[in-house]
Write a structure and sequence with these properties.
three-stranded antiparallel β-sheet, globular, four-stranded antiparallel β-sheet, mainly beta, 176 residues
């Protein structure tokens, strides 16, 4: 219907010869509610929980600076619709995964008929370099008579799919 639930899974690879901290930025559409932040630990996704900001930051930094193997992560609110995360450790040659999920109501456009979904991807000089992108949307329950998608996404039946490699997004992905 009118509710969009977006789940993003991202992988971070460390090509360096030493352990590093991953820095991650996330934008969500206006009015979206963050539902999940999870980081992999030994192959299992571990969900985060809410803590007071100063306490959470101090606990994260204490674990990072003592070389903890507890796999700390810290998600912080920057501004409306903008979050940043720190993930530690990412060992040499290793991959770390994070999962973010948010929900939002899709409101009709001013003409009253269309609903537009926007997946924030950035653009301009601050756009991240994306090695592999696989985007899938199930729009079958949206009760739409016609679906259009940007960035060359393929619409077939109730599915929207987009696959891209080695690119820097120039705009957000829109589905109408």
């Amino acid at each position: 219907g009118e509710l969009a639930i977006t789940e993003v899974e991202e992988e971070f690879f460390n090509p360096a010869s030493e352990t590093v901290e991953g820095l991650y930025r996330l934008r969500v559409p206006e009015g979206a509610v963050l539902q999940r932040f999870a980081v992999d630990r030994n192959g299992q996704m571990v969900d985060g929980f809410v803590r007071e900001q100063a306490q959470a930051r101090a606990a994260y930094q204490a674990q990072v600076y003592r070389g903890s193997t507890d796999d700390p992560a810290l998600l912080e609110w920057d501004s409306p619709g903008s979050y940043r995360a720190r993930i530690y450790p990412i060992a040499p040659g290793e991959v770390r995964r994070i999962t973010i999920r948010y929900a939002e109501w899709l409101h009709p456009t001013q003409d009253g008929g269309r609903r537009i979904y926007r997946y924030p991807m950035g653009g301009g000089s601050r756009a991240p370099h994306v090695q592999e992108l696989s985007f899938q949307a199930n729009v079958g329950r949206a009760e739409a008579t016609e679906v259009r998608a940007g960035m060359g996404a393929v619409v077939s039946g109730g599915q929207v799919e987009l696959r891209r490699s080695d690119f820097r997004p120039h705009a957000d992905l829109f589905i109408e």
